[in-house]
């Protein structure tokens, strides 16, 4: 996820009313999508150079927006003079997938190649940005950023004109209705019930890591997981050619760590990044809140034992409190 760490960092056509119903129209023209990407890149590079979250605030939203702004805030506290080794982000070889849909919000994805992973073993990876527009006079904003290998980016279902098809949050013909992903994932991490997820590093693997780290010498860790699926955190997905779906969704995770002062050497993991945004004084307890963004592939419900497969997961620290 090297590239994800590096990256973690218009006006659409008006909604037309026909006989009282909203028309199904492309979310954006390709020219509008290209301009949205250009605008985002300009804002991203301005903000990263001086670590100023206000310079990117109107260009980001949802889980990516909250994580990115918190990251810039922490970096600003650590390096008030800005990024002395700044190298502009470049996104090339862009493929846009734009769905036709009615109403708002509207969205599209840009599948790109980033210069941030050049020379690494992830040099072939793709950076997929999900742009959202919440109303006619609102700007396009990036809500999700995923780093995937080329073979993980699916072939999308499109009509004769090349427009993609959004998947309904309540769709029951895929492994999990997209609107239930966040709630089910939070529940799975809490109690381990499968809930339709395939085994992997972000499901069975993540619970195994928690089990190992829950009780360590002088340090106790507990987690609380919460759904995040409304407003700018709503899931977004597209139908794939195989009848399934490719979906982005978010969640929130709280981690409480408490030390036993009677144990010699016990200490809280107060990294510089944590200290930069922490409020309060960490006497013996640290509570951290993370915003997490996931990309999953949902097979058709008609498959044998259909389960959601995690393709990408990134999380950003947004709050830290000491007591």
Task: Provide a descriptive summary of the structure in words.
- The chain has two domains: 1-153, Nuclear Transport Factor 2, Chain: A, CATH 3.10.450; 165-323, no CATH class.
- It is 22% helix and 32% strand.
- It is built from six helices and 15 strands.
- The strands form four sheets. Strands 9, 10, 11, 12, 13, 14 and 15 form a seven-stranded mixed β-sheet that branches. It has a four-stranded antiparallel β-sheet with strand order 4-6-7-8.
- A hairpin with a 2-residue loop joins strand 9 (215-216) and strand 10.
- The radius of gyration is 21 Å and the shape is globular.
- The model is unreliable at 1-21 (pLDDT under 50).
Compile the SSE list and pairings.
Blueprint: H1 2-7, E1 17-18, E2 21-22, E3 25-26, H2 30-50, H3 62-78, E4 91-97, E5 100-101, E6 106-114, E7 126-133, E8 141-148, H4 181-191, H5 204-213, E9 215-216, E10 219-228, E11 236-239, E12 245-259, H6 272-277, E13 278-280, E14 285-298, E15 309-322
Parallel strand pairs: 13-15
Antiparallel strand pairs: 1-2, 3-5, 4-6, 6-7, 7-8, 9-10, 10-12, 11-12, 12-14, 14-15
């Amino acid at each position: 996820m090297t590239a994800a760490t590096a990256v973690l960092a218009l006006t659409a056509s008006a909604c037309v009313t026909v006989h009282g119903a909203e028309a199904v129209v492309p979310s954006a023209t390709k020219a509008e999508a290209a301009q949205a990407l250009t605008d985002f890149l300009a804002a991203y590079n301005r903000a990263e150079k001086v670590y100023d979250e206000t310079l990117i605030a109107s260009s980001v939203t949802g889980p990516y927006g909250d994580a990115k702004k918190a990251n810039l805030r922490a970096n600003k506290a650590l390096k008030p003079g800005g990024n002395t080794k700044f190298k502009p982000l470049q996104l090339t070889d862009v493929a846009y997938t734009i769905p036709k849909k009615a109403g708002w919000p509207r969205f599209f994805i840009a599948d790109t190649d980033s210069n941030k992973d050049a020379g690494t073993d992830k040099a072939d990876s793709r950076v997929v940005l999900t742009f959202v527009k919440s109303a006619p006079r609102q700007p396009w904003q990036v809500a999700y950023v995923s780093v995937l290998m080329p073979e993980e980016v699916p072939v999308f279902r499109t009509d004769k004109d090349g427009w993609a098809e959004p998947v309904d949050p309540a769709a029951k013909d895929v492994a999990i209705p997209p609107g239930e992903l966040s709630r089910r994932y939070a529940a799975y991490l809490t109690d381990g019930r499968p809930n339709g997820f395939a085994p992997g590093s972000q499901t069975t693997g993540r619970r195994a890591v928690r089990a190992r780290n829950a009780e360590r010498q002088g340090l106790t860790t507990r987690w609380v997981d919460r759904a995040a699926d409304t407003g700018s955190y709503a899931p977004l997905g597209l139908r794939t050619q195989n009848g399934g779906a490719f979906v982005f969704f978010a969640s929130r995770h709280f981690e409480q760590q408490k030390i036993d002062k009677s144990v010699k050497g016990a200490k809280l993991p107060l990294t510089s990044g944590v200290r930069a945004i922490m409020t309060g004084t960490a006497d013996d307890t640290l509570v951290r809140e993370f915003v997490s963004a996931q990309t999953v592939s949902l097979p058709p419900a008609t498959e044998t034992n259909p389960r959601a497969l995690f393709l990408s997961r990134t999380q950003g620290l947004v709050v830290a409190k000491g007591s």
